[in-house]
Every structure is written in C-alpha cells, then in structure tokens.
Amino acid sequence: MARNVAQKLIADHLVEGSMEPGSEIGLRVDQTLTQDATGTMVMLELEAMGLDRIRTELSIQYVDHNLLQTDEKNPDDHLFLQSAAQRFGLWFSPAGNGVSHPVHQAHFGRPGAVLIGSDSHTCAAGALGMLAIGVGGLEVAMAMAGQPLYVSMPEIWGVELTGSLPDWVSAKDVVLEMLRRHDVTGGVGRIIEYHGPGLAELTAMDRHVIANMGAELGATASVFPADDVAADYLRAVGRQEDFTRLEADAGAGYDVTEQIELSELVPLIARPSSPGNVVPVAEVEGEDVAQVVVGSSANPGLRDMAVVAEILAGRQTASGLSLDINPTSREVLADLITGGWLTSLVTSGARIHQSGCMGCIGMGQAPATGRNSLRTMPRNFPGRSGTEEDAVWLCSPETAAAAALTGRITDPRDLEDSHCLAYPRPAMPETYTTIDDMLQPPLPAQEAAEVELVKGPNISALPDFDPVEDDLSVPALLVMGDNVSTDEIMPAGSRVLPYRSNIPKIAEFSFSRIDETYPRRAQETQSGHVVIAGENYGQGSSREHAVIAPRYLGLRAVIAVSFARIHWQNLANFGILALAFDDPADLQRISQGDEVVLEGLHDALRAGTTLLARIGDREVGLHHTLASRQVDMVLAGGRIPLAAREI
C-alpha cells in the first residue's frame, strides 16, 4: 500500500495498536529533548522513579528559557540540570548555546527518527523528515525510561504547496496563512504533512518555521519529506552521513487535503492576542510600533536575521523604537559576524541580546504598556510577553524590519517605493559555523553512577498526590470560556518561571491571569475543587506546572467542552480527571461556586466513558476519552506511582 511520510514514520515505530485514526497507538521513541523551564520537573520525575540511566538512542537537556540571573534561582537550577544530565546519561547544552529547536536540528536532527520533547515547539524538527511531537514532561521521562509514547492515531492532513513565494513574502507567511484559514484548533487530532512542487522553494530552515507553528494550529506534528533540500542542509552543517531519503510513495493519499498556491500569498500578521487572529498586513498599516523583536524558535535561521540586516543596512531604526535581535545560537551569531550582518544591525540601532528564548517566554523584553510590539515569535497569548496589558503582533522578519524602519506597521512591499529598496536575498554560506564543543556529551555509565544531584534551596521534591476519591462533592472554583491557555493557567515570565522547581511557591500563581483570588480560595477549600471551561482548554505550552500546581492546590477534575492534546495528557499523568460535556450548552448553565457531585467514580470510569454529574441544581451528562491505562493512572493518583513499580 502506498504510504505518505507520516504513515511511514509511524509504521516504522509502531509497537502497540493499529493505525486507525482515533485509536490509541504506542510509538518507540528514538530521541528526547528537554529545556530548563520543563526539564527540572523531568529530572525530578526520573529521580522519583528510581531510573538508573536513560534508555533512548539520544536525549539532551537544553538551557534556553530561564537565562536571566536576577538572583540565584536560575543559576542553581542550571547546575542541577547539568548534574542530572551527567547522572542519567544525557547530553547537556549550557546557557548561551542557543534555542533548543534549531540547535537540535543542526546537531541531532535525523530523518526517519521519532523525537519527543517537553516543549510544544518540538514539532519544528519535522522540517528534516522526523516525527517530532511536543508532550508533557512525564511523557518524556517515561520515554527515557524505555516506555513507548502513547497518542491517539491522528488523521494525516496533506497540504500541497504549489508555485513560488513572491518578493517580501516568506515562510512565516505560509504558516500564518494556515492559521488565517483554520485558527488555533484546525490541526487538533491531525499530523500536517506538507508536499508538492512548492517544497523546492523552501529551505530546511524555512520548513522549520512552518513546522514550528504547527503547535499553534493544535496539530500533533508537522512533517516534511527528507529530500534534496534536507540533504543540502545536513551537508551544510557537516552531517551529510545522517541523511536518509524519506518521501511519500507515488499515489499516497491523505485523510484530509488542502492546497496553498504560494505565489498568491501576501504579507500576513497575527493581531493581539491570538496566533489565529491573522489578517493581511495591508489591513492594519499605520499602527504605531514601539518595539520589534526578531528571533525565537519560530524564525531562528541565519537568513531570518540577515534579511533584516540587509533591509536596514545604511539606515537607522525609527526614533523611539526598540529593535531587539535575539540570535538563536552561538553558531548563528558567529555567522552573522562573518557575513557582516551583525555590523549592519548594530549600526542601524539594534540591540543585540544573548542566544535564547528571551522575550518569547516573557524572560525580559517586555513591551511598554499600551504600545504595539511586533515579534517574529510563535505566540502572543495575553500577558505572555511579561506586560499584563500587552499588544503583541506576530509577523515575518520582512514585516518586522519594515516596522523597525518606519515606526509603524508597514506592508514590506511598500518599501520598494518609499525607501527605494529591492527585496534582499542574502547569500547563505555553503557551510554554516558548527561548534560541536559547546555541547557536553553523556558521561560513561560507571562515572555517571557516582554523580550526586546538585540541588539548590529552590528545588523541592515532587509532591505525593492521593488517588481520586470514589465520591466527589466539591465546588467549581472557576468557570471560564474557550481557548484558555497554559500561560493563563500558569504564567511564564521572569517573575514566575524561576520557581519552576518549587511547586508550593509556583502554585501561588495558578490561574492568576484569570482570577488572582484562585490560589487563596483553593487553599481554603479543604475538600478539593474542580474548574469548568469551554473549548480547547489548555492550549499552548507543554509545561506540566499548569497541571501540577493546581493539583497541589486541590484540583481534582476539569470539566470542559474540549481539551488541547498535551494538557489533556498531562492531566491524566498527574491524577486529574478530564471530563467533557455531552452537551456544550451546559457550560452556560453553570456558575462559579456551584457544587459538583460525582458518585461511584471508580466503577464508572472502569466500566465505560460516560458519567452523570450533579452540578448545582441539575444533572449534567459527561464523558471521557481516557484509555484504560490512563484510568488506572488517574485512580492511582498519577503515572509516577505506577511507573516506579514498573521500573
């Protein structure tokens, strides 16, 4: 049978289940990726399970999120992560090396492999013909312990690309077009596979841009073939021996199909405050801009920064505007220097920051109140930037550079007339700078066994969570709407993320963007509680803190219209029931403070997928989509108690 690329990757790694959309499958995992905002939890989970040494082909711990050293907490955690990498047999990338996703693609990306990471943008690695999936930290820990990754078999969504991109339009506009058409839930339950003659126009780093923001579409993964373009990239980073051709068979089909004619695309921009709020740049021209930030895993390539440098060469940024450049790795920074692009950026007025996620995760670079910030980043959820009332727009490097030059949102195509600018096409080097020594390899097993974990005072143990009671009678402490993000459940940023290893402390920030009284009310509710929400609950980041911290405060169940994939998995992993309304209209009939009564839960969960709850003065039909193994996890209080016994 003719197979597409995604089907080949899944079939090659399938260890349980069948490839029927919607059924649960188990996949063998080759590689794992963790970063410092989520990796501390993963390492504590490995310790709690009693793992001796990882059992994957390759695992690597990156430090790229929490780079600010405003006190001892971040440096202490970095030392802990380094010691854990040595103890358990991981590679380690210290602070300053760069953003995990482009660094991983350059050093470890391998066509045909399955990669999972405790970062939702792990899907970027699909650019090289990998099946790369963002998951919760505990899923990564289990894979490192040799367990399969369990997911629902997705539909394969084939997106055919035809034609060529016009001037002033680039890869970011391709994925923004997908978001314009389908919003943030269009990819739920699907793997997006890009194919067609238009692929020849997209470099491996262009593909990285598109695959990265598949997370914003809600997709399980985004996949590109490993073709001549992938071969050229691996040759340019000195790893041509890792290339394996992987393309769809002739006649392969897709569950869902779509077509994008690249030549018809225009510069696009996502308005505040959702990646799905996309319009043509021409529709919003003229809005004043106070800040432009270029970098992040969504536009990490040398070309993405070089094109900004060439647009600004010999010119000054607009008065009163801050242009912030975040080189995505030491290697990209070195190539910016060699190519002369860094000089152009510096002399034009740009501020050069360290290699890392920085403003993308709210770690510095917060915009001024009431001022527009244009960013080449993947997300603009409310408050994610570090400013509560922020106005963050997402765009391509070309649109970002145009705004930096004019001080307002500008269609970059207008620069040809207003500034006599021809569209720049920076010449990329035949080989990119590669600094292999910046990555620390695993220690030999005997030496690793002697390593003691270095724990600063901010690192607490994982809490022990009790099993779910058979009968629950608890209040609904929050009633929320659609698309609640993990940034709203557990904020990121420089004020909160330094406590990522201290669950009692970080729990104080739970749901604070929605209701700052929630942590206090949760602590006062001794019997536990539930929260209620609309569609796509838990979209965004993979961070487990958005589950563990509310669980620490007594959250027993979430009742929603629907759930985002990673967050739904995380809820089960830590013993929180994820229940969906049979009738979404019931959400409108529930008020904060209503008592939620669930009786005979244990037998009901084991017997099937439907339950009946009493909420306030009415009966409400609910259902779950948990597999039997997940039911066991929830009833046991989470996956760690079960895993410790298995290991």
Notable traits:
single chain, 647 residues, alpha/beta, 22 helices, 26 strands
Structural overview:
This protein is of the alpha/beta class and 647 residues long. The radius of gyration is 24 Å and the shape is globular. The model has no long low-confidence stretch (mean pLDDT 94).
Quick summary of this structure?
This protein is an alpha/beta fold. It is built from 22 helices and 26 strands. 29% of the residues lie in helices and 18% in strands.
Give me the secondary-structure category.
alpha/beta
Major β-sheet annotation: 7 strands, mixed, barrel
Number of distinct beta strands: 26
Unreliable stretches (pLDDT < 50, length at least 5) are none
Helix content: 25-40%
**How far is it from the N-terminal to the C-terminal residue, by CA?**
38 Å
List the helices and strands and how they pair.
Layout: H1 5-13, E1 14-16, E2 24-27, E3 31-35, H2 36-49, E4 58-62, H3 73-88, E5 91-93, H4 100-107, E6 114-117, E7 131-134, H5 137-144, E8 149-152, E9 155-162, H6 171-182, E10 190-195, H7 204-212, E11 221-223, H8 228-236, E12 256-261, E13 268-270, E14 278-280, E15 291-294, H9 302-312, E16 322-325, H10 330-338, H11 341-347, E17 351-352, E18 372-375, E19 391-394, H12 397-406, H13 415-418, H14 445-448, E20 472-479, H15 486-489, H16 503-506, H17 518-524, E21 529-533, H18 545-552, E22 555-560, H19 565-573, E23 577-581, E24 595-598, H20 601-607, E25 610-615, E26 618-623, H21 628-636, H22 639-646
Parallel strand pairs: 3-4, 3-6, 4-5, 6-7, 9-10, 9-12, 10-11, 15-16, 15-18, 16-17, 18-19, 20-21, 21-22, 22-23
Antiparallel strand pairs: 1-2, 2-8, 13-14, 20-24, 23-26, 24-25, 25-26
Helix pairs in contact: 2-3, 2-5, 6-7, 9-11, 9-12, 21-22
